Amino acid sequence: MVQVRVAGVALDASGQHVILLKPIDEIPGEGMVLPIWIGQLEATSILVAVEQAPVPRPLAHDLMREILETLGASVVRIEVSRIEEGTFYAEITLSTPLGERVIDARPSDAVALASRVGAGIWVASAVMEDAGVPDVLTETDAAERMDEFKRFLDEASPEDFEG
Questions:
Q1: Could you give the CA distance from residue 128 to residue 126 in angstroms, rounded to a whole number?
Q2: Where along the chain do its domains lie?
Q3: Could you tell me the strand order of the sheet in which 99-105 lies?
Q4: 3-class SS string, 54-93
Q5: Minimal CA–CA distance to 76: which of 91, 94, 103?
Q6: Which sign does the torsion angle of CA 104, 97, 59, 146 carry?
Q7: C-alpha distances in angstroms, 7 versus 10, 28, 142?
Q8: CA–CA separation, 36 and 17 (whole Å)
Q9: Which end of the chain is more exposed for a tag (fewer CB within 10 A), N or C?
Q10: So which domain of life are we looking at (predicted)?
């Protein structure tokens, strides 16, 4: 397993959202990055959590966090455990009053939840080897991503977060 962090959320050439997971011990522009394509709502949820942006109403992953806290459970870690036929699979490990439990999840939901509760994010070494790509992020790319997110927040309205 390789511990990773959210290096960013971007749009690919076709306008699809992609989350970029990077080993925590590698600097931007070096090593590998794991791209996982996700939906727009999940991308928004992850960005809101990573940037600690205020939202007018709780998002689905905020609700998940509140439910877990209310039930006395906590997220121990999440793992992107495997990839099969281009589909990534993740697991959320919970500490509960009844002991540790592992729950199957989509990587986007698992990362969004982990980003809210400060849980570690891990990727199976085989997944990183199979699906990781060289990280060629430039400072200009990073600045453009941040500008894009700031524009999103400036233009977002409370209705954009309604389910």
A1: 5
A2: 2-158
A3: 99-105, 87-96, 74-84, 120-123, 2-11, 17-23, 32-38, 133-134
A4: CCCCCCHHHHHHHHHHHCCCEEEEEEEEEEECCEEEEEEE
A5: 94
A6: negative
A7: 10, 8, 9
A8: 9
A9: C
A10: Bacteria
Q: Specify whether the CB–CB gap between 5 and 111 falls below 8 A.
A: no
**Cα dihedral sign for 44, 47, 49, 52?**
negative
Convert the pLDDT of each residue in 135-159 to its tens digit: 875 555 556 666 666 676 677 666 6
Distance CA 22, CA 3 (A): 8
CATH 3.10.690.10 describes domain 2-158: yes
> Beta partners for 12?
none
Q: What is the pLDDT of residue 107?
A: 96
Assess contact for 32 and 24: CB atoms under 8 A: no
What's the CA angle centered on 46, arms 42 and 50, to 5 degrees?
175
- Name 14's Cβ contacts closer than 8 Å, sequence gap at least 6: none
Residues of the chain with confidence (pLDDT) below 70: 137-150, 152-153, 156-163
- Contact yes or no for 43/9 (Cβ under 8 A): yes
The 10 Å CB-count burial string (b at 16+, else e) for 31-54 is ebbbbbebeebbbbbbbbbbeeee
Grouping H, G, I as helix, E, B as strand and the rest as coil, residue 37 is strand
